[in-house]
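PROTEIN DESIGN WORKSHEET
SECTION A - STRUCTURE
LENGTH: 441
TOKENS:
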């Protein structure tokens, strides 16, 4: 099948590369000429495990092409995927401008029957609006059918997810269009769930809102655990064994970030608002997450009279491990406040430092290893649970001026701190003082 993918961000590029890997002829289109130049040379503009290798392979085997010209991709395409961004508007609603611009391009340029697949996360009713927009603006008498096919990949394991996802959701008006999209995806071997368009759109928002709810729920339990001397890691294991609850997404920490949960939860609140429904539960989820992102700052405030002049090592900047995505990362809020309070921030992240430099306050010092970051530091803050941090040698903390660690991701088992002489603050677990480390089992 000839496929065009519009937008080569995390979703579009992974979609294009994966579709070419299963044998389709794919042209990826982006308005960012620098990105396209890089990709033509086989260089991925984003960090995603396994992506560069598959990209190079499919370029080499002449199934994967890149261009800035929409007409190049559209002229041969049987199916056009739209995977452009739908960022948050100031009022929390989803900004559909990028999707609409692509829809108008399609109306202008497509001259044969084509299926348009919307991969971008869009509010319920958007596929219908885009269908109408295309019908009203198309220049020739062709049939262009819009199909909803929301994306569920997880950054950091996106390529793996393409081939091992839990489901592919297809929302279509006609059985014929749904069948074509199902056939395109068949080689992935992922279960397909076919439904109506509006339900498909809602499945995406409901899934993200539910996952965000699980995170905010366990974070609230963690905050209570701290006050009643329980251990949230034990609690999460105990409740996760109940199959009705499940053991995933029960990791307490400093909240969710990234390009999806924050914006999609707010967009769903807006969608509910449009139909005069007050989604109380989800409002709470969003508020809890905001507070949770600031929890380490609160803990620092309780521990130190002032942060003025303190050297603070920040370990991990990305919103989660195995990605270079800095969008809505807790590190943005936290480092800004540390600098405001007069601390000297020394930061390290294995992958996302280049992206971080564009978003974080300029006075941050970036270093190339955990060792460099913590040397002579007064305090270390762990913001992302990269393996490199989770499995680091705890003796390294002895090179700090004072081994005081605030771990926002519960990277270490409390038992592993035995004899470490580290003062250790984590989420939903008792504080371990230096003296206590002698007494740990
Ligand atoms: P992104 O911001 O990383 O990429 C969007 C790309 O679209 C950019 O490269 C931009 O240059 C390009 N673009 C914009 N307008 C264009 C146009 N007219 N023609 C061609 N290219 C154009 O976005 P993303 O993170 O890949 O997300 C895309 C969509 O998928 C969003 O709706 C998002 O909510 C959804 N989604 C994202 C994820 C994720 O983990 N990132 C997961 C599931 C769903």
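SECTION B - SEQUENCE
RESIDUE ASSIGNMENT:
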């Amino acid at each position: 099948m000839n496929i065009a993918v519009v937008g080569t961000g995390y979703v579009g590029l992974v979609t294009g590369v994966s579709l070419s890997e299963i044998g389709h002829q794919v042209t990826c289109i982006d308005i960012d000429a620098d990105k396209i130049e890089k990709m033509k040379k086989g260089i991925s503009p984003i960090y995603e495990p396994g992506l560069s290798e598959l990209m190079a392979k499919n370029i080499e085997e002449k199934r994967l092409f890149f261009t800035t010209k929409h007409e190049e991709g559209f002229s041969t395409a049987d199916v056009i995927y739209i995977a452009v961004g739908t960022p948050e508007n100031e009022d929390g609603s989803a900004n559909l401008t990028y999707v609409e611009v692509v829809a108008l391009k399609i109306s202008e340029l497509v001259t044969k029957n084509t299926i348009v697949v919307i991969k971008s996360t869009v509010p319920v009713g958007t596929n219908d609006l885009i269908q109408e927009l295309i019908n009203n603006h198309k220049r020739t008498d062709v049939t262009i059918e819009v199909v909803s096919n929301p994306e569920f990949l997880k950054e950091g394991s996106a390529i793996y997810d393409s081939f091992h996802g839990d489901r592919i959701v297809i929302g279509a008006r006609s059985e014929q269009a749904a069948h074509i999209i199902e056939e395109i995806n068949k080689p992935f071997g992922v279960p397909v769930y076919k439904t109506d368009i509006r339900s498909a759109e809602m499945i995406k928002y409901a899934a993200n809102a539910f996952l965000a709810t699980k995170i905010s729920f366990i974070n609230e339990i963690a905050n209570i655990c701290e006050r009643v001397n329980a251990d949230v890691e034990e609690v999460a294991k105990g409740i996760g064994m109940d199959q009705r609850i499940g053991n995933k997404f029960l990791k307490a920490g400093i909240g969710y970030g990234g390009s999806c949960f924050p914006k999609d939860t707010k967009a769903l609140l807006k969608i509910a608002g449009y139909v005069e429904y007050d989604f109380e539960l989800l409002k709470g989820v969003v508020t809890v997450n905001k507070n949770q992102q600031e929890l380490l700052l609160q803990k620092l405030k309780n521990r130190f009279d002032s942060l003025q002049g303190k050297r603070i090592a920040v370990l991990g900047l990305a919103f989660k491990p195995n990605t270079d995505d800095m969008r809505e990362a807790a590190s943005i809020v936290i480092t800004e406040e540390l600098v405001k309070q007069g601390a000297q921030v020394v930061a390290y992240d294995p992958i996302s430092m280049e992206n971080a430099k564009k978003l974080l306050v300029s006075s941050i010092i970036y270093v190339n290893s955990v060792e460099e970051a913590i040397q002579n530091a007064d305090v270390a803050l762990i913001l992302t649970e990269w393996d490199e941090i989770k499995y680091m040698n705890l003796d390294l903390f002895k090179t700090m001026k004072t081994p005081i660690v605030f771990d926002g991701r519960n990277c270490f088992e409390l038992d592993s701190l035995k004899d470490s002489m580290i003062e250790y603050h984590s989420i939903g677990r008792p504080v371990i003082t230096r003296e206590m480390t002698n007494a740990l089992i």
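SECTION C - NOTES
The chain is about 40% helix and 15% strand.
The pocket of nicotinamide-adenine-dinucleotide is lined by residues 6-12, 29-32, 35, 83-86, 98, 101-102, 120-121, 151, 153, 155, 259-260 (CB under 6 Å).
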